[in-house]
Design brief:
This protein is mainly α and about 475 residues long. The protein is about 50% helix and about 5% strand. It is built from 20 helices and 4 strands. About 40% of the residues are buried.
Amino acid sequence: MSPTYTAFTVKACVQPGCYSSMLLCQLTMSWTSVPHSSDSRTGVGGSLHTFPVPASSPGLQLGIGGDARVRGQTGVLSERRGSYPFIDFRLLNNSTLSGEIGTKKKVKRLLSFQRYFHASRLLRGIVPQASLYLLDEDYLGQARHMLSKVGMWDFDIFLFDRLTNGNSLVTLLCHLFNVHGLIHHFQLDMVTLHRFLVMVQEDYHSQNPYHNAVHAADVTQAMHCYLREPKLANFLTPSDIMLGLLAAAAHDVDHPGVNQPFLIKTKHHLASLYQNVSVLENHHWRSTIGMLRESRLLAHLPKEVTQDIEQQLGSLILATDINRQNEFLIRLKSHLDNQDLRLEDAQDRHFMLQIALKCADICNPCRLWDLSKQWSERVCEEFYRQGDLEQKFELEISPLCNQQKDTIPSIQIGFMTYIVEPLFERWAQFTGDTPLSENMLNHLRRNKAKWRSLLHKQHSSSRSNDHSGQVTGSQEQTLNEEETP
């Protein structure tokens, strides 16, 4: 008998173009037993991916525990389905793995206990004790209130994620698709849209401190704000808006929590597949296309239209490669200096969508201090995890990943100075110094001043303190007291 797993069956009559409170997960659901099937993109239910390591580390493997998550017809998850599952650090020092992949019992040992326990409960048809998506009315009311202010730059995505029970990306995208009239314009089926967005959200790895679904939701909310800038909004078509929102939502999907140099020096198969060029961005794009096709969200559109959407999505997502920063800055500067941007032209509009997505992707330093600081600590924590992994296996520690040398203030000051400021100054030049652009630049300058103050305090007490770079409560209080209105 084939194994089964438990899944939701959605009981809702939603016509194409219809928008309801389903975006806040108020669908009527029932539990059914669905036959187990392999992932249509990966073709397997579980596998083991390894990172080869230098000869100086014999017997070691940088292993990635293969995932066994598959998806039922309703799009509801049983286990992670990503083609690039997350790194299981407990496998890294296991030299006996090579001969153990064969039996079901041995394969189970490759999975972390938490994931295996969750999978085994579902495979045995046991319903989870807590509903995955249902929230009480108080939380739903607060989430609705926040959505009414989704165009405000002080939008707190961390609070919104808590209010939606970890479903910020799905909830936000359903709302924005409705606000921009995309459901009606493209005659999208609401249930199919929801299924696709769940697939995207669940292909982000929640154990990543930074590159997770909350980051994707934050980038999407920023993209929404940029799409409303008058200089751009007056020329955008529904297709442009949908591409911008989809690219923002999926730009880091299935991110492994390590960077491209790590994949290259460990000779990972993705680095080989994409020939060491925009490795992660290519993977994010291809994964998104796979989910679009699997969900059949755009299956009712002409083939040439869907092919064009897929290619433009790729162009947008590939633009987020930080290694191409100078390429885009030089081109943008040339357009602005020559005043030759013609947004009536689809090619120029697409270029500005690329710039908008690049801005949204690195806009954290332009947020309010409390939000910006959280993102800074999260991204540095992800860097440090990679550095610890590289040190453990005698690999060269990547830049910014050495917790003993690279403090959070120093990393952030460099990032703001060389990456963020040049891009956002040009963006402000394009938009014409709108209130949003001025607000972002003001936050950027204040946050940079705070990091400089923290760095100075760290240098003053470096002999007695560790160099973790974490912002203490007393330091933050001092900063707040020193900040001028």
